[in-house]
Amino acid sequence: MIIAHELSYHAGKKELLHRLSFEAKAGEMLAILGANGAGKSTLMKLLCREISPSHGHIIFRERNLQQYKLPELAKQRAVLSQQNTISISFIVTELVMMGRYPHFDQFPGERDIEVVRQVMEETGITALAGRDYNTLSGGEQQRVQLARVLAQIYDTPDACLFLDEPTNGLDLLYQQQMMELARRLANKGYCVICILHDINFASRFADKILMLKDGKKVAIGTPLEVINHENIYETFNIQVKLMECEGYDCPLVIPAMIQNNL
Ligand SMILES: Nc1ncnc2c1ncn2[C@@H]1O[C@H](COP(=O)(O)OP(=O)(O)OP(=O)(O)O)[C@@H](O)[C@H]1O
């Protein structure tokens, strides 16, 4: 589905990513973990072609990512980014319909209307349909945005969905629902690539975890393969306790106490 080969990215003289290679398949969820400034968002921008690599290349659905025309790409990958503030007023249904813009010229067709109805149901926002987006809570807005990006790739069930910290600002229940929904989408066949700050969410929901430090790969593998003291210390510079927990395949990660120098 998506193969990164020796990816590097420079901003001026600074190297933000260094020779990263990895693969994510259709039906898989890949979580990207790393400390603040590790290069996670830069990597995601490269993978969805917001920026171009300084070195290396990305193969997306067996073609070089750079060869795609943007309208073609819009039907095969969608991005839920962190900044979703909107200055003008939109009704929720209109905003979700924006995800269908790559699919119609002037007016939405029956299929577009049906897809919007379905994604609103799947993301649990049907009751919000007539509301002004700007009056919604942060958690509700996040679900509306997820419905919009899902509408964009709904007709391509093995498309790629990029989620940049999708649980940010959500309460415990919404975080869980968001991760379960992302997991269901991967189970349906989507390739879900997700930046997360919560190691426990990554290990519970992802098939594979990529750990980054200073733009370099620390580890990639299944949660059981990569969640260990050494990798976590190298990635986050913190000691942790790993605890077995009934019903969980992977150990729970609990940060050890640190002396607070803030
Ligand atoms: N255009 C740029 N010019 C110079 N430095 C940049 C540029 N874009 C990003 N950086 C730097 O590159 C590093 C990686 O940034 P990036 O946003 O990818 O990190 P991140 O892992 O997503 O961090 P966070 O978890 O804090 O969101 C940071 O130190 C950032 O300041």
From TrEMBL:
<dbReference type="GO" id="GO:0016887">
    <property type="term" value="F:ATP hydrolysis activity"/>
</dbReference>
<dbReference type="GO" id="GO:0005524">
    <property type="term" value="F:ATP binding"/>
</dbReference>
<comment type="function">
    <text>Part of the ABC transporter complex HmuTUV involved in hemin import. Responsible for energy coupling to the transport system.</text>
</comment>
<dbReference type="InterPro" id="IPR003593">
    <property type="entry name" value="AAA+_ATPase"/>
</dbReference>
<keyword id="KW-0813">Transport</keyword>
<dbReference type="InterPro" id="IPR027417">
    <property type="entry name" value="P-loop_NTPase"/>
</dbReference>
<keyword id="KW-0547">Nucleotide-binding</keyword>
<keyword id="KW-0067">ATP-binding</keyword>
<protein>
    <submittedName>
        <fullName>Iron complex transport system ATP-binding protein</fullName>
    </submittedName>
</protein>
<keyword id="KW-1278">Translocase</keyword>
<dbReference type="InterPro" id="IPR017871">
    <property type="entry name" value="ABC_transporter-like_CS"/>
</dbReference>
<dbReference type="Pfam" id="PF00005">
    <property type="entry name" value="ABC_tran"/>
</dbReference>
<feature type="domain" description="ABC transporter">
    <location>
        <begin position="2"/>
        <end position="239"/>
    </location>
</feature>
<dbReference type="InterPro" id="IPR003439">
    <property type="entry name" value="ABC_transporter-like_ATP-bd"/>
</dbReference>
